[in-house]
Amino acid sequence: RMTFRSVLAFEHFLLLMVVIFGLQLVDRSFGPVLPLFVNSLGAREDQVPLIAGLLFSISAAAGAIGNNLAGPLLRRAGARKIIAGACGTAALGIGGYFVAQNAWWLTLPTAIFGIAIGSATTTAYTAASTIIPSGARGSGFGLLSTASLVGLAVSPIASGLLAATSIRAVFLADVIILGTLALVVSRVMTTAAPPRTESLPKEEI
User: Fold this and answer.
1) 31: Cβ–Cβ under 8 A, 6 or more apart, which residues?
2) Is residue 59 a contact partner of residue 30, using CB atoms and an 8 Å limit?
3) How far apart are CA 181 and CA 203, in angstroms?
4) DSSP string, the chain
5) N or C terminus of the chain with fewer C-beta within 10 Å?
6) C-alpha to C-alpha distance for 140 and 126, rounded to whole angstroms
């Protein structure tokens, strides 16, 4: 009988749960603070809803593009490289928020962030599906959904608490989380090479 403990024992499954949780935690952190950040960049009060709504739409559309890019990327590189690279790229996208002098300039880093997050999320789920046996798909994807939902629930509270001290602290925390995920995945998510077999001499075949 397949148990949750046995599902967690699958290779890299727990790591992928952490990745999905971290990606959701970062992705949902923008909701409570983005309109406030747009306002802090000097946007007029009547433009704040428009600009914030546009940025959310760009992030969602870019995420959909990233989801579709995951397939072609997986045919060219392994999941480890894609997840680590996408997390690093998403961190660079958020880094663009620190140098933006105008709210309209946030569109470019938001698009970069959305594509990277979409690619990393889809790749993480795809990688998890390859290590879960068919008899454990229900339990496995149940745990992955739990990690995603926990990140969804915790993110607004955590970002709100950070924003009480500084709005930029939320983005700094996001960069740290994404950088940590990129480093951990690149170091931990490795697969042992198959054992080499020497060919037999022709007279022994």
Assistant:
1) 155, 156, 159
2) yes
3) 52
4) ---HHHHHTSTTHHHHHHHHHHHHHHHTTHHHHHHHHHHHTT--TTTHHHHHHHHHHHHHHHHHHHHHHHHHHHHHS-HHHHHHHHHHHHHHHHHHHHH-SSGGGGHHHHHHHHHHHHHHHHHHHHHHHHHS-GGGHHHHHHHHHHHHHHHHHHHHHHHHHHHTT-HHHHHHHHHHHHHHHHHHHHHH---PPPPP-PPPPGGG-
5) N
6) 12
- CB 178 within 8 Å of CB 26: yes
Give the separation between CA 138 and CA 191, rounded to whole angstroms.
Answer: 25
Minimal CA–CA distance to 27: which of 187, 170, 182? 170
Residue 83 to residue 192: CA distance in whole angstroms? 18
> pLDDT tens for residues 80-119?
999 999 999 999 999 999 988 888 899 999 999 999 999 9
d(CA 166, CA 99): 16
For the packed helices 13-27 and 137-163, what is the interaxial angle rounded to 10 degrees? 40
173's tokens? 């925390």
Cβ atoms of residues 20 and 141 within 8 Å: no
Q: Which two tokens stand for residue 52?
A: 């914030």
